Amino acid sequence: MAGKDEEYDYLFKVVLIGDSGVGKSNLLSRFTRNEFNLESKSTIGVEFATKSIQTENKVIKAQIWDTAGQERYRAITSAYYRGAVGALLVYDISKHITFENVERWLKELRDHAEANIVVMLVGNKCDLRHLRTVSVEEATEFAEKNKLAFIETSALDASGVDTAFQRILTEIYRLMNKKQMSAGGSSPTPALGQGETIALSSGATDKAGSRSKTACSGCRT
Ligand SMILES: Nc1nc2c(ncn2[C@@H]2O[C@H](COP(=O)(O)OP(=O)(O)O)[C@@H](O)[C@H]2O)c(=O)[nH]1
Ligand SMILES: [Mg+2]
């Protein structure tokens, strides 16, 4: 029987990318199952996990893909990126090299993903504040230069995790709405076009401020 979990307005594929060990799998398990694993059992064969959220009166089902450890061999296949409308590009705030490698991951996205994929830079492990090597300022500057949303998270203590997913899904939804409007307003989905006001400004800096806000407050110290 189809339960409430099955009902959604949109299904968005979001991929997790970033160096090995930055916490991608744990961000996924924290968000979808509220679980965290201290051991790095690299890859318990999960291809993707799903979770539905609500935004602007719509139910968005997120299908979040995890690399299954392929990032270690720089062998992520293009199938991984196919159809993805969002990407969380994760680094570890206590390992500067993982932040330096963000450039490479952006190039990977340019080469393999849709041109208009929504990318959010995620500084994970912000609970390790005593070991921090990437400052909020440095990451914010980089994110602004590259027009990325930015947030810090901790999969361990859960701070910022829900916010990160909520924000990227909301931004994807808004951009999709905007695109449908500018394509003539003939939406294929009856749920749309019911007189909602859709912001036509670019950059999605409005309302949720997903591009202008930076770290979650819990992670700034
Ligand atoms: N302190 C801390 N450790 C984390 C956090 N997220 C992940 N880890 C640890 O970092 C290691 C790698 O995590 P994992 O999710 O496997 O990273 P992945 O290779 O990017 O998928 C594991 O030992 C996790 O327990 C976090 O937010 N804080
Ligand atoms: Mg992993």
Record keyword descriptors for this entry.
alpha/beta; binds guanosine-5'-diphosphate; Rab11A, rab family GTPase; Small_GTPase; GTPase activity; Rossmann fold; about 220 residues; 6 helices; prenylation
DSSP helical segment count: 6
How many domains? 1
Radius of gyration: 17 Å
Q: Between the first and last Cα atoms, what is the distance in angstroms?
A: 47 Å
Biggest sheet overview = 6 strands, mixed
Spell out which ligands are present.
guanosine-5'-diphosphate, magnesium ion
Q: Quickly give the structural class.
A: alpha/beta
- What are the secondary-structure elements, in order, as H or E? EHEEHEHHEHEH
Look at the structure and name the CATH superfamily.
Answer: P-loop containing nucleotide triphosphate hydrolases
* Main sheet: strand order: 2-3-1-4-5-6
The gross shape turns out to be: globular
By CATH reckoning, the class would read Alpha Beta
Strand content: 15-25%
Q: Provide the low-confidence segments as ranges.
A: 187-217
How many strands?
A: 6
